């Protein structure tokens, strides 16, 4: 499977479609940023009445929508859950439904990828866990030991870590729960990428090819633990 662009990171197939597939593992993508990706960033605005109508037409009515927010992100920063709060109840969508629930041919609006924020808010709580004993409010000033045994100090609030899935971005910034309400009566969704974020990014593959990587190297980057024959 493949998609147009991931906007910064691909995603585990299990987090998007609910099925674990060994070679479909998400990872940070440093290559897309090294080529031109048309319409890589997007912004779409919905009114409460539009969202209420869309949910109702799809059989998920919550009454009049009062709030909608991302209630869970994956470790790679892609959307895992979106929650709608209305006068008639609450409804949470997971996986690929997080973007597809916003599609409306009537209003000619849609959410392009699995990598977005709503009104700049990120639901849930977070931060960087250390040895499973607690979370850091900030990465600035934290001591780290490199793979070569060198002791260093982080500056700023973001860094990268090497995991079994490759290099992934980490942050010590806590994500506060949504306080409810919209911005000026509207819900603005902003994001990057185009598609479901699983498997190979077409523009990422283009960038890798332009940088001199072979087709086998490209496939080995986007698909985990595969053998190309």
What tags apply to this protein structure?
three-stranded antiparallel beta sheet; 5 helices; 229 residues; alpha+beta; globular
* SSE ordering: EHEHEEEHEEEEEEEEEHH
Helix run count: 5
- Helical fraction: 10-25%
How many strand units?
A: 14
Major beta sheet, specifics?
Answer: 3 strands, antiparallel
Order of strands side by side in the largest beta sheet?
Answer: 2-13-6
- Strand residue percentage: 25-35%
Oligomer: single chain
Helix and strand content put the structural class at alpha+beta
- Shape field: globular
* Whole-angstrom Rg: 19 Å
Query: Averaged pLDDT, please?
Result: 84
The rounded distance between the terminal residues' Cα atoms is 18 Å
Low-confidence stretches: 122-127, 163-167, 173-181
Characterize the structure shown.
With 229 residues, the chain is of the alpha+beta class. It has helices at residues 13-17, 48-57, 97-100, 202-210, 215-222; strands at residues 2-3, 41-47, 65-73, 79-86, 89-94, 116-118, 128-129, 135-136, 143-145, 151-153, 158-163, 166-171, 186-192, 200-201. Strands 2-13-6 form a three-stranded antiparallel beta sheet. The protein has a three-stranded antiparallel beta sheet with strand order 3-4-5, covered by helices on one side. It is globular and about 55 Å long. Residues 122-127, 163-167 and 173-181 have low confidence and may be disordered.
């Amino acid at each position: 499977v493949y998609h147009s662009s991931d906007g910064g990171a691909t995603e585990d197939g299990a987090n998007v479609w609910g099925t674990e597939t060994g070679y479909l593992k998400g990872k940070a993508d440093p290559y897309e940023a090294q080529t031109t990706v048309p319409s890589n960033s997007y912004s779409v605005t919905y009114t409460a009445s539009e969202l209420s109508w869309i949910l109702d037409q799809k059989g998920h009515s919550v009454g009049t929508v009062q709030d909608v927010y991302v209630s869970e992100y994956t470790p790679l920063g892609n959307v895992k859950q979106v929650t709608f709060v209305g006068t008639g109840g609450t409804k949470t969508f997971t996986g690929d439904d997080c973007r597809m629930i916003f599609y409306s041919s009537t209003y000619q609006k849609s959410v392009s990828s699995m990598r977005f924020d709503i009104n700049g808010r990120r639901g849930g709580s977070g931060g960087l866990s250390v040895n499973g004993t607690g979370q850091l409010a900030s990465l600035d000033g934290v001591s780290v030991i490199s793979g070569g045994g060198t002791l260093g100090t982080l500056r700023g609030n973001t860094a990268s870590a090497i995991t079994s899935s490759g290099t992934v971005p980490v942050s010590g910034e806590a994500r506060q729960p949504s306080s409810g309400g919209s911005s000026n009566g509207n819900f603005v969704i902003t994001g990057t990428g185009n598609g479901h974020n699983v498997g190979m990014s077409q523009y990422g593959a283009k960038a890798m090819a332009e940088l001199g990587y072979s087709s086998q190297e490209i496939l080995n980057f986007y698909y985990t633990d595969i053998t190309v024959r």
